[in-house]
Amino acid sequence: MALNEKPVRLLMQQDMIASIGIEKDQIFTREQVVDWFAEHYPNIKQSTVVCHITRLSTNNPTRLHYSVKADGTDDVFFKIDSSSFRLYNKGYDPTPITDKTPIEQIEQESVSLSIECTSEFAYEHDLRDYLARNLHIIEPSLKLYSDQGITGVEFPVGGRYIDILAVDKDGGYVVIELKVSKGYDRVIGQLLRYVSWIKKNQAEQNQSVRGIIIAKQISEDLQLACTELPSVSLYEYDLSVAVRKV
Q1: Fewest CB within 10 A of the end CB: N or C in the chain?
Q2: CA distance 181 to 201
Q3: Is residue 242 part of a domain?
């Protein structure tokens, strides 16, 4: 990617806000931000722009994956809904979410779910975070995607999110989809949609994109569905717990 005079986070804070004319309490959309970068900095990928909106949104828990500055310089936006934002109003809005934010506050900012769904949701997040830190257990050379502080954890793809976006030893993208319970054949459609989005919007010409599905148990239907898909690999995981007396 061609170099710009500033990092994306500073272009967004210092140039875009003034150029669009965003003022206090004025609502703007994700589409406006994406369109501005497409016009002024077409070399910056849409996914990178979307990730930086998340990074700068003070009440979005996902920002924790994107190396938020501890000095408060990344506390710029306040997320209203899935596609609408305004400028962060210090002293009025809740304290920005950081890695020091109590888990109770983060949970309040997350979507309300039933107890059963919440348990599975949290379990999948724990599995995702563990694998993101230990991708070598899947493939020795696999690394988490990273660009200007944006990582491949919950990587945005057209309004949806990839669990983990990784890069292999040859520089190809690897889309990793996690299922904490049984992996059924319908997950293949979800994975292929993500792979196609990365091919179209993120990958360079001749850069490979493949997929991995990791589940507690891979169903026979899913194995059959992937028989003719050499670019998709299937993995099952096992968890073990050890305790010691202290």
Answers
A1: C
A2: 30
A3: no
